[in-house]
Amino acid sequence: MDFTAIIPARASSTRLPGKMLADIGGMPMVVRVARQAQASGAARVLVATDDAAIQKAVRAHGFESLLTRADHPTGTDRLAEACDALELDDTQLVVNVQGDEPLIDPALIAHVAHALDRHAAAAIATAAHPIDTAEELFNPNFVKVVCGADGHALYFSRAPIPWARDALAGGERVFAPGLPALRHIGLYAYRVGFLRRFPTLPQGRLEQWESLEQLRALEHGYAIQVHVTPQAPAPGVDTPADLEFVRRLVAAKS
Asked: Do you find a cis peptide bond into 162, omega within 30 degrees of 0?
């Protein structure tokens, strides 16, 4: 099975300006992401960016990069433009690897691609890991997903789902032992044909309320296969504190 790993990397970032080129152990962050994607076994790794400086840095380290429009509302829209520029066939598989995940496990990238390849009824595949604390369950910044018996996502929410009715009847924020709660991991594999349709789909009401782009696919009837991994992924980089934490982790391994 062949798949292409595309890393959307926009220049602007509110909480951490310039983070795509932030140095981590002597290498720009986006290049570290590309190296992890390459180690996944992807047939091709490409950084899709709206910034010439990012493209130059990526190419200087031997990776392919494509300049895209700067006005894309989401990274998924940027991927769709990249697929057209690369002239990918509708049946091909693309994995969207976030540009601020320099420690992402290459095996997880491969697992998500294989999950989509194995499930012909799905347009998308993604990942999740078990939640085992009330803090994670009730944190609205941690997106939860519930799945059907076939592994397809039934719903994504910032709310604590599934709801443990009896354990939470008293109003305490506790974690019910054995609750099959899953935290969503923002890694996606797509069929290229779906990626080309996605920008044409109108936003759904649930997507607008939850501010979760993946709900648009569910609201329009597209299946999302969920690969469940036993462990939480390595931390990404959203803030200066995140960046310093990841730098320490990389320094400790070198």
From this structure: yes
